[in-house]
Design goal:
This protein is 82% helix and 0% strand. It contains 14 helices and no strands.
Length: 400
């Protein structure tokens, strides 16, 4: 539902506000995804697996602690993001301020908590539906009053509603003990120490996927609308796979230690084939889809769609193997290391290739880095399972 709403909104926003304005809003959204690393601070990445592994009575308190910490981080991050959006883009200052709030708010939400709770209806009603209504309302209003500020204002209002409803539903879920709200800043910041692996993985992963938009803006700004639309279609495809990933994240740890290892083996074998199939489909369909959803105003050719197919295949594998398999195996450090390796290669490579080959060069750099990330994670999972399958034989006790 979320994917469909955002996908169908593209042609209306482009035809009403123009392709350049839409691309600037997409750039602001990518910027928010980078600053969202700070706001979510790892809970959005590893939080679902953490919730699924906790006893049910302890889960609401864990969410409340994370919510307080993330609200503080939101207050710190939003003003800085506003300044960055003004420097990078050409959006009206008031619209830029509202866009900064609108696109950062979902990182304070409860979607990962509902995933860990295996409560898809709460995810739909209290998170997906309010955000979707904000997009629909914004699209309808700009048909009568074509102003970017009106569109992002709708997103702000409904995203605030989503955060409030999601928090209320999460804090009421399966509560059996009184909750304690520690609002002290020192306590809120102290809780961040336990999220170091999650935030490193989320941070480097988000840089890999969102910094390229900024790179295109800096080295090939004329291609920003094409790259932004290709990036949107890639993200919608990835979001379409999201429910499968969410099911796998809950399905693996719920089986118990021994059975979960068998499930991890099966998922690790299947994921590369599924990723390859998805990448080929996306690369073939993207040129047609870009023309369809922009009403012919923006066309993404195969020079961009093929590297985006590689990115999609690699990210799909990395999400399944990294988030659903490495975390239950207790390999959070390996997850963080893999994304750090990818970012270390991706960041300099995409600027270098972007200067020489334009937007396609940026996309190929991202694809190469994502292949490296996925390959490293698969090797770590296989090595971990090999050691688990052959435990060391204890030394015999000495004769007495």
């Amino acid at each position: 539902m979320s994917t469909a709403i955002n996908l169908l909104a593209i042609p209306f926003v482009i035809s009403t506000l123009g392709g350049d304005v839409w691309a600037e809003l997409a750039l602001a959204q990518s910027t928010a995804a980078i600053f969202g690393i700070i706001v979510a601070f790892g809970w959005g990445t590893v939080g679902a697996a953490m919730v699924a592994s906790l006893p049910a009575p302890d889960r609401p308190q864990m969410f409340l602690d994370s919510l307080i910490s993330r609200i503080y981080l939101f207050v710190f991050a939003a003003p800085v993001m506003y300044v960055v959006v003004l420097m990078l883009g050409q959006v009206d200052p008031a619209a830029a301020a509202l866009a900064s709030l609108a696109y950062l708010l979902p990182f304070v939400g409860a979607s990962w908590y509902f995933i860990g709770q295996a409560e898809p209806w709460k995810l739909l009603l209290f998170d997906v539906l309010p955000q979707g209504l904000g997009t629909v309302t914004g699209v309808v209003l700009i048909q009568f009053f074509p102003a970017p500020i009106l569109f992002v204002l709708c997103l702000v209002v409904f995203n605030i509603l989503a955060v409030g409803l999601g928090a209320a539903a999460a804090l009421r879920s399966r509560r059996q003990v009184p909750l304690t709200a520690d609002l002290r800043l020192t306590s809120a910041m102290g809780r961040l120490r336990g999220q170091k692996y999650g935030v490193i993985a989320a941070g480097t992963g988000s840089l890999n996927s969102n910094l390229p938009m900024i790179a295109v803006k800096l080295v090939a700004s004329a291609a920003l609308p094409q790259y932004a639309l290709a990036d949107k279609l890639f993200r919608f495809a990835l979001a379409g796979f999201g429910p499968v990933l969410q099911v796998i994240q809950g399905w693996i740890p719920e089986a118990g230690r021994i059975e979960s290892h068998q499930r991890i083996r099966m998922v690790t074998k299947i994921a590369p084939a599924v990723g390859l199939l998805g990448g080929v489909v996306l690369a073939v369909l993207m040129p047609w889809a870009s023309s369809l959803f922009s009403r012919g105003e923006i066309v993404v050719d195969f020079a961009l769609s093929i590297p985006f197919g590689l990115i999609f295949a690699s990210v799909l594998v990395a999400q399944v193997v990294g988030l659903a398999c490495l975390i239950p195996l207790g390999k959070g450090a390996a997850l963080a290391k893999s994304t750090a390796i990818g970012a270390a290669l991706n960041i300099p490579l995409m600027f270098a290739m972007g200067i020489f080959f334009g937007a396609p060069g940026v996309a190929w750099a991202v694809g190469i880095a994502e292949v490296l990330v996925a390959g490293y994670q698969i090797l770590v999972v296989r090595d971990s399972l090999r050691h688990l399958g052959h435990p060391p034989v204890p030394a015999p006790e000495p004769l007495r």
